[in-house]
Amino acid sequence: MSDVDVVPIAEGFTVRNLQLDDFGKGILPLLGQLTTVGTVTKEQFEARFNEMQATGLYDIVVIEDVAAGKIAGTATLLYEKKFIHGCGLVGHIEDVVVDSNVRGKSLGKTLILELRRRAKQAGCYKLILDCSEHNVPFYEKCELTTK
Predict the structure, then answer these.
(1) Whole-model pTM above 0.85?
(2) Alpha carbon of 101 to those of 72, 73, 75, 106, 107: distances in Å?
(3) CA angle, 103 as apex, 95 and 16 as ends, to 5°?
(4) Helix (H, G, I), strand (E, B) or coil at 16
(5) Spatial CB neighbours of 118, under 8 Å, sequence gap ≥ 6
(6) Is residue 78 within 8 Å of residue 57, measured between CB atoms?
(7) pLDDT value at residue 5
(8) Is the dihedral of CA 8, 146, 1, 78 positive or negative?
(9) How does pLDDT run across 113-130, given as a tens digit for each residue?
(10) 103 with 94: CB under 8 angstroms?
């Protein structure tokens, strides 16, 4: 992984960790732009959030549109513990989505760069992302390569 120390962000947006109150800021409808979410109550969201936080194996990053108070993008970094590479860590990038209303502001690239930064900081020896063939050019712009 190459060095990523400073992650750029478009004006009016902020990058941060997922929070419980993001339920009310549209995180689930945003994920619905990526895949099927189903019906998830606030209580279910909070329980799953707390479970994921307790494991220490998830970094769920969001980009918030500060003025609108809405989540504009999200991505997840899941850590896989290994025996190989000296009991190393592998990072898995999952659930990358940017709201269709704010695409074209490099928010997706910001999410990927932030996850790369966190993976490096955690000591991951590699980062894995499975994606559709039509998304490969975007991820290549984020300095990820196909294997």
Answers:
(1) yes
(2) 8, 11, 17, 13, 12
(3) 55
(4) strand
(5) 59, 61, 77, 91
(6) yes
(7) 56
(8) positive
(9) 999 999 999 999 999 988
(10) no
